[in-house]
Automatic annotation (TrEMBL):
Species assigned in the record: Extremus antarcticus
Keyword Cytoplasm: no
Similarity section: Belongs to the iron-containing alcohol dehydrogenase family.
Protein name (database record): Alcohol dehydrogenase
Domain of life: Eukaryota
The keyword Endoplasmic reticulum is annotated on this UniProt entry: no
Keywords: Oxidoreductase
Ranges where the Alcohol dehydrogenase iron-type/glycerol dehydrogenase GldA domain occurs: 19-132
Fe-containing alcohol dehydrogenase-like C-terminal domain mapped to chain residues: 176-330
Coiled-coil intervals, chain numbering: none
Amino acid sequence: MAPRIEQTVHDTRMYACETRVVAGLGSINLIPSELERCGIQRPALVVDQGIAEAGLIEQWLPTEVACIEPRIICPMNPNLQQVQAGVDTARPKGCDGVLIVGGGSAICMGKAIAICLVNHGDLLDYEGSEKIDKVSFMHSRPSYFEVLIVTAASAHHLRTYDGRIRLRSFTSFSPSLDAISHACESLWSRNRSLITDGLAEKALETFLTRLPAALNHRELDALQDIMEASSAANLACGNTGLALCHAMNASPDVALPHGYVNGCLLTAVASFNRPFMDERHQSMVDRLPSLFAEIGWQAKFAKGEVDRDTTELFVNASRDHPFRNNNIRSSSGESIQYDVLLS
Ligand SMILES: [Zn+2]
Protein backbone atom coordinates (compact mmCIF):
# COMPACT_ATOMS: atom_id res chain seq x y z
CA MET A 1 0.00 0.00 0.00
CA ALA A 2 1.27 3.49 -0.83
CA PRO A 3 2.27 5.54 2.23
CA ARG A 4 -0.33 7.97 3.53
CA ILE A 5 0.30 11.55 2.33
CA GLU A 6 1.31 14.18 4.83
CA GLN A 7 -1.71 15.48 6.80
CA THR A 8 -0.42 19.00 7.52
CA VAL A 9 -2.55 21.94 6.35
CA HIS A 10 -0.33 24.54 4.66
CA ASP A 11 -1.38 28.12 4.04
CA THR A 12 -4.88 28.06 2.60
CA ARG A 13 -6.80 30.72 0.77
CA MET A 14 -10.49 30.87 -0.04
CA TYR A 15 -12.39 32.10 -3.07
CA ALA A 16 -16.19 32.24 -3.17
CA CYS A 17 -18.47 34.23 -5.44
CA GLU A 18 -22.23 34.26 -5.34
CA THR A 19 -22.59 37.58 -7.15
CA ARG A 20 -24.73 37.58 -10.27
CA VAL A 21 -23.25 40.20 -12.60
CA VAL A 22 -25.41 41.64 -15.36
CA ALA A 23 -23.24 43.87 -17.55
CA GLY A 24 -23.83 45.84 -20.72
CA LEU A 25 -25.16 49.10 -22.10
CA GLY A 26 -28.83 49.38 -21.16
CA SER A 27 -28.60 46.79 -18.37
CA ILE A 28 -29.96 49.32 -15.87
CA ASN A 29 -33.38 48.84 -17.48
CA LEU A 30 -33.38 45.27 -16.21
CA ILE A 31 -33.68 46.37 -12.57
CA PRO A 32 -37.49 45.92 -12.44
CA SER A 33 -37.33 42.40 -13.82
CA GLU A 34 -34.38 41.55 -11.57
CA LEU A 35 -36.30 42.82 -8.52
CA GLU A 36 -39.18 40.62 -9.56
CA ARG A 37 -36.86 37.69 -10.13
CA CYS A 38 -35.60 38.12 -6.55
CA GLY A 39 -39.13 38.20 -5.21
CA ILE A 40 -38.82 41.73 -3.80
CA GLN A 41 -42.19 43.40 -3.72
CA ARG A 42 -41.66 46.39 -1.46
CA PRO A 43 -38.09 47.65 -1.80
CA ALA A 44 -36.77 50.73 -0.04
CA LEU A 45 -34.59 52.94 -2.25
CA VAL A 46 -31.31 54.04 -0.62
CA VAL A 47 -29.68 56.77 -2.69
CA ASP A 48 -26.40 58.65 -2.53
CA GLN A 49 -27.15 62.27 -1.63
CA GLY A 50 -25.19 63.68 -4.59
CA ILE A 51 -27.00 61.45 -7.08
CA ALA A 52 -30.39 62.37 -5.59
CA GLU A 53 -29.69 66.10 -5.54
CA ALA A 54 -28.48 66.09 -9.13
CA GLY A 55 -31.81 64.55 -10.20
CA LEU A 56 -30.02 61.52 -11.61
CA ILE A 57 -32.50 58.98 -10.26
CA GLU A 58 -35.18 60.42 -12.53
CA GLN A 59 -32.68 60.70 -15.37
CA TRP A 60 -31.13 57.22 -15.10
CA LEU A 61 -33.58 54.76 -13.69
CA PRO A 62 -36.71 53.24 -15.26
CA THR A 63 -39.80 55.20 -14.12
CA GLU A 64 -41.19 52.43 -11.92
CA VAL A 65 -37.87 52.31 -10.05
CA ALA A 66 -37.41 56.08 -9.80
CA CYS A 67 -40.74 56.44 -7.99
CA ILE A 68 -40.04 53.81 -5.30
CA GLU A 69 -40.97 54.99 -1.80
CA PRO A 70 -39.50 55.28 0.75
CA ARG A 71 -36.42 56.99 -0.65
CA ILE A 72 -33.68 57.13 1.97
CA ILE A 73 -30.93 59.64 1.27
CA CYS A 74 -27.39 58.60 2.20
CA PRO A 75 -24.85 61.31 3.10
CA MET A 76 -21.09 60.84 2.68
CA ASN A 77 -19.72 58.50 5.36
CA PRO A 78 -23.06 57.78 7.13
CA ASN A 79 -23.05 57.02 10.86
CA LEU A 80 -25.06 54.61 13.04
CA GLN A 81 -27.78 57.17 13.83
CA GLN A 82 -28.37 57.79 10.13
CA VAL A 83 -28.62 54.04 9.51
CA GLN A 84 -31.12 53.74 12.37
CA ALA A 85 -33.20 56.59 10.93
CA GLY A 86 -33.28 54.67 7.61
CA VAL A 87 -34.43 51.51 9.39
CA ASP A 88 -37.16 53.51 11.21
CA THR A 89 -38.35 54.84 7.84
CA ALA A 90 -38.36 51.48 6.02
CA ARG A 91 -39.70 49.19 8.73
CA PRO A 92 -43.24 50.62 9.05
CA LYS A 93 -43.61 50.39 5.25
CA GLY A 94 -43.03 46.63 5.37
CA CYS A 95 -40.00 46.78 3.07
CA ASP A 96 -38.72 43.35 2.04
CA GLY A 97 -35.57 44.48 0.25
CA VAL A 98 -33.32 47.44 -0.38
CA LEU A 99 -32.35 48.87 -3.75
CA ILE A 100 -29.19 50.95 -3.46
CA VAL A 101 -28.00 53.55 -5.94
CA GLY A 102 -24.63 54.91 -4.96
CA GLY A 103 -21.04 54.12 -4.10
CA GLY A 104 -19.38 52.80 -0.95
CA SER A 105 -21.30 54.96 1.53
CA ALA A 106 -24.73 54.16 0.11
CA ILE A 107 -23.87 50.49 -0.26
CA CYS A 108 -22.71 50.21 3.34
CA MET A 109 -25.72 52.14 4.63
CA GLY A 110 -28.17 50.13 2.50
CA LYS A 111 -26.67 46.81 3.57
CA ALA A 112 -26.77 47.91 7.21
CA ILE A 113 -30.45 48.89 6.86
CA ALA A 114 -31.23 45.54 5.22
CA ILE A 115 -29.47 43.67 8.01
CA CYS A 116 -31.46 45.56 10.66
CA LEU A 117 -34.74 45.02 8.81
CA VAL A 118 -34.52 41.24 9.03
CA ASN A 119 -32.42 40.55 12.09
CA HIS A 120 -32.98 41.19 15.78
CA GLY A 121 -30.73 43.24 18.01
CA ASP A 122 -28.33 46.04 17.33
CA LEU A 123 -26.34 46.54 14.11
CA LEU A 124 -23.11 46.31 16.11
CA ASP A 125 -24.05 42.74 17.09
CA TYR A 126 -23.26 41.87 13.49
CA GLU A 127 -19.84 43.50 13.28
CA GLY A 128 -17.25 41.07 11.89
CA SER A 129 -17.56 38.24 9.41
CA GLU A 130 -19.84 35.19 9.26
CA LYS A 131 -22.36 36.75 11.64
CA ILE A 132 -25.28 37.22 9.24
CA ASP A 133 -27.31 34.44 7.75
CA LYS A 134 -30.59 36.17 7.08
CA VAL A 135 -29.67 38.61 4.36
CA SER A 136 -28.19 38.35 0.93
CA PHE A 137 -27.13 41.06 -1.45
CA MET A 138 -27.85 41.71 -5.07
CA HIS A 139 -26.22 44.63 -6.73
CA SER A 140 -26.03 46.41 -10.00
CA ARG A 141 -23.77 49.26 -11.00
CA PRO A 142 -25.10 51.84 -13.41
CA SER A 143 -22.19 54.23 -13.35
CA TYR A 144 -19.26 55.05 -11.16
CA PHE A 145 -21.80 54.46 -8.46
CA GLU A 146 -23.44 51.21 -7.68
CA VAL A 147 -27.03 50.19 -7.73
CA LEU A 148 -27.21 47.46 -5.19
CA ILE A 149 -30.31 45.44 -4.60
CA VAL A 150 -30.38 43.88 -1.18
CA THR A 151 -32.99 41.40 -0.14
CA ALA A 152 -33.79 39.02 2.63
CA ALA A 153 -35.78 36.89 0.27
CA SER A 154 -33.28 35.50 -2.15
CA ALA A 155 -29.91 33.83 -2.22
CA HIS A 156 -28.99 35.34 -5.58
CA HIS A 157 -26.58 38.20 -5.95
CA LEU A 158 -26.89 40.61 -8.81
CA ARG A 159 -24.90 43.48 -10.23
CA THR A 160 -25.74 45.25 -13.44
CA TYR A 161 -23.10 47.38 -15.06
CA ASP A 162 -24.26 49.94 -17.58
CA GLY A 163 -21.50 52.25 -18.83
CA ARG A 164 -23.75 54.84 -20.47
CA ILE A 165 -24.48 56.84 -17.38
CA ARG A 166 -21.07 57.43 -15.99
CA LEU A 167 -20.78 61.15 -15.46
CA ARG A 168 -17.39 62.73 -15.10
CA SER A 169 -18.64 66.15 -14.09
CA PHE A 170 -20.59 64.71 -11.22
CA THR A 171 -18.09 62.31 -9.82
CA SER A 172 -14.59 63.71 -10.29
CA PHE A 173 -12.09 60.87 -9.93
CA SER A 174 -12.92 59.40 -6.54
CA PRO A 175 -14.86 56.26 -7.50
CA SER A 176 -12.33 55.31 -10.21
CA LEU A 177 -9.47 55.82 -7.76
CA ASP A 178 -11.25 53.59 -5.27
CA ALA A 179 -11.77 50.89 -7.91
CA ILE A 180 -8.06 51.04 -8.84
CA SER A 181 -7.16 50.77 -5.16
CA HIS A 182 -9.34 47.65 -4.83
CA ALA A 183 -7.39 45.91 -7.63
CA CYS A 184 -4.03 46.99 -6.16
CA GLU A 185 -4.92 46.04 -2.59
CA SER A 186 -5.87 42.56 -3.77
CA LEU A 187 -2.49 42.24 -5.53
CA TRP A 188 -0.53 43.30 -2.43
CA SER A 189 -2.62 41.35 0.08
CA ARG A 190 -1.39 38.28 1.94
CA ASN A 191 -4.53 36.36 1.01
CA ARG A 192 -4.10 36.63 -2.76
CA SER A 193 -4.41 33.49 -4.83
CA LEU A 194 -4.15 32.57 -8.51
CA ILE A 195 -7.90 33.15 -8.88
CA THR A 196 -7.98 36.59 -7.27
CA ASP A 197 -4.81 37.59 -9.16
CA GLY A 198 -6.59 36.68 -12.40
CA LEU A 199 -9.38 39.13 -11.59
CA ALA A 200 -7.22 41.87 -10.07
CA GLU A 201 -4.58 41.83 -12.82
CA LYS A 202 -7.19 42.05 -15.58
CA ALA A 203 -8.98 44.83 -13.71
CA LEU A 204 -5.79 46.84 -13.17
CA GLU A 205 -4.65 46.35 -16.77
CA THR A 206 -8.07 47.61 -17.92
CA PHE A 207 -7.82 50.71 -15.70
CA LEU A 208 -4.29 51.39 -16.97
CA THR A 209 -5.25 51.16 -20.62
CA ARG A 210 -8.89 52.28 -20.75
CA LEU A 211 -9.42 54.89 -18.03
CA PRO A 212 -8.12 57.85 -20.08
CA ALA A 213 -10.56 57.07 -22.91
CA ALA A 214 -13.38 56.66 -20.39
CA LEU A 215 -12.65 59.79 -18.34
CA ASN A 216 -11.16 62.15 -20.89
CA HIS A 217 -13.24 61.23 -23.93
CA ARG A 218 -16.24 59.42 -22.43
CA GLU A 219 -16.00 56.65 -24.99
CA LEU A 220 -18.90 54.30 -24.34
CA ASP A 221 -16.96 51.07 -24.84
CA ALA A 222 -14.23 52.31 -22.51
CA LEU A 223 -16.82 53.33 -19.89
CA GLN A 224 -18.34 49.88 -20.07
CA ASP A 225 -14.88 48.29 -19.71
CA ILE A 226 -14.24 50.39 -16.59
CA MET A 227 -17.58 49.29 -15.10
CA GLU A 228 -16.69 45.65 -15.57
CA ALA A 229 -13.13 46.14 -14.35
CA SER A 230 -14.52 47.76 -11.17
CA SER A 231 -16.68 44.68 -10.65
CA ALA A 232 -13.73 42.32 -11.22
CA ALA A 233 -11.64 44.34 -8.73
CA ASN A 234 -14.44 44.03 -6.16
CA LEU A 235 -14.70 40.29 -6.67
CA ALA A 236 -10.92 40.06 -6.17
CA CYS A 237 -10.63 42.21 -3.04
CA GLY A 238 -13.92 40.86 -1.67
CA ASN A 239 -12.12 37.54 -1.40
CA THR A 240 -8.57 38.57 -0.49
CA GLY A 241 -9.66 41.30 1.90
CA LEU A 242 -8.29 44.83 1.65
CA ALA A 243 -4.87 46.03 2.79
CA LEU A 244 -2.85 49.05 3.92
CA CYS A 245 -4.66 51.81 1.94
CA HIS A 246 -8.05 50.89 3.36
CA ALA A 247 -6.64 50.29 6.85
CA MET A 248 -5.29 53.84 6.95
CA ASN A 249 -8.49 55.13 5.40
CA ALA A 250 -10.63 53.60 8.15
CA SER A 251 -10.86 56.60 10.46
CA PRO A 252 -14.43 57.92 10.78
CA ASP A 253 -12.95 61.28 11.81
CA VAL A 254 -11.35 62.11 8.47
CA ALA A 255 -13.99 64.04 6.53
CA LEU A 256 -12.75 63.33 3.01
CA PRO A 257 -14.32 61.05 0.35
CA HIS A 258 -13.18 57.43 0.63
CA GLY A 259 -12.03 57.08 -2.99
CA TYR A 260 -10.20 60.40 -2.89
CA VAL A 261 -8.18 59.37 0.18
CA ASN A 262 -7.30 56.02 -1.38
CA GLY A 263 -6.19 57.83 -4.53
CA CYS A 264 -3.96 60.10 -2.44
CA LEU A 265 -2.40 57.13 -0.63
CA LEU A 266 -2.14 54.77 -3.58
CA THR A 267 1.22 55.60 -5.15
CA ALA A 268 2.90 55.93 -1.75
CA VAL A 269 1.51 52.57 -0.56
CA ALA A 270 2.54 51.06 -3.92
CA SER A 271 6.16 52.20 -3.42
CA PHE A 272 6.06 50.93 0.18
CA ASN A 273 4.84 47.48 -0.93
CA ARG A 274 6.75 47.26 -4.22
CA PRO A 275 9.83 45.35 -2.95
CA PHE A 276 7.53 42.60 -1.65
CA MET A 277 5.46 42.20 -4.83
CA ASP A 278 5.78 39.89 -7.85
CA GLU A 279 7.84 41.35 -10.67
CA ARG A 280 4.80 41.25 -12.92
CA HIS A 281 2.74 43.24 -10.41
CA GLN A 282 5.59 45.66 -9.80
CA SER A 283 5.60 46.57 -13.47
CA MET A 284 1.84 47.18 -13.34
CA VAL A 285 1.92 49.51 -10.32
CA ASP A 286 4.92 51.29 -11.88
CA ARG A 287 2.52 52.48 -14.61
CA LEU A 288 0.16 54.21 -12.14
CA PRO A 289 1.95 57.61 -12.15
CA SER A 290 1.69 57.95 -15.93
CA LEU A 291 -1.99 56.92 -15.82
CA PHE A 292 -2.64 59.58 -13.17
CA ALA A 293 -0.79 62.18 -15.24
CA GLU A 294 -2.92 61.27 -18.26
CA ILE A 295 -6.21 61.71 -16.40
CA GLY A 296 -5.00 64.85 -14.60
CA TRP A 297 -4.97 63.43 -11.07
CA GLN A 298 -2.29 64.89 -8.79
CA ALA A 299 -2.09 61.63 -6.75
CA LYS A 300 -1.51 63.30 -3.39
CA PHE A 301 -3.35 65.36 -0.79
CA ALA A 302 -3.89 69.02 -1.59
CA LYS A 303 -1.72 71.49 0.30
CA GLY A 304 -2.85 71.88 3.90
CA GLU A 305 -5.33 68.98 3.70
CA VAL A 306 -3.26 66.64 5.85
CA ASP A 307 -1.53 67.97 8.95
CA ARG A 308 0.15 66.21 11.87
CA ASP A 309 -3.24 65.52 13.55
CA THR A 310 -4.78 63.98 10.45
CA THR A 311 -1.66 61.86 9.95
CA GLU A 312 -2.16 60.54 13.44
CA LEU A 313 -5.80 59.71 12.68
CA PHE A 314 -4.66 57.63 9.69
CA VAL A 315 -2.02 55.79 11.69
CA ASN A 316 -4.32 55.18 14.66
CA ALA A 317 -7.12 53.88 12.42
CA SER A 318 -4.75 51.31 10.94
CA ARG A 319 -3.39 50.10 14.30
CA ASP A 320 -4.34 46.39 14.74
CA HIS A 321 -6.70 46.72 11.77
CA PRO A 322 -7.19 43.38 9.97
CA PHE A 323 -6.58 45.11 6.62
CA ARG A 324 -3.16 46.24 7.79
CA ASN A 325 -2.33 42.71 8.94
CA ASN A 326 -3.40 41.50 5.49
CA ASN A 327 -0.88 43.80 3.78
CA ILE A 328 1.98 41.93 2.10
CA ARG A 329 4.58 44.09 3.88
CA SER A 330 4.42 44.41 7.66
CA SER A 331 4.50 47.93 8.98
CA SER A 332 4.89 49.82 12.20
CA GLY A 333 3.05 53.06 12.89
CA GLU A 334 6.30 54.93 12.35
CA SER A 335 7.11 53.32 9.02
CA ILE A 336 3.65 54.19 7.72
CA GLN A 337 3.96 57.73 8.95
CA TYR A 338 7.28 58.37 7.27
CA ASP A 339 7.26 56.08 4.26
CA VAL A 340 3.65 56.43 3.26
CA LEU A 341 1.97 59.53 4.57
CA LEU A 342 4.83 61.96 4.46
CA SER A 343 6.54 60.77 1.29
ZN1 LIG B 1 -12.62 51.18 -1.15
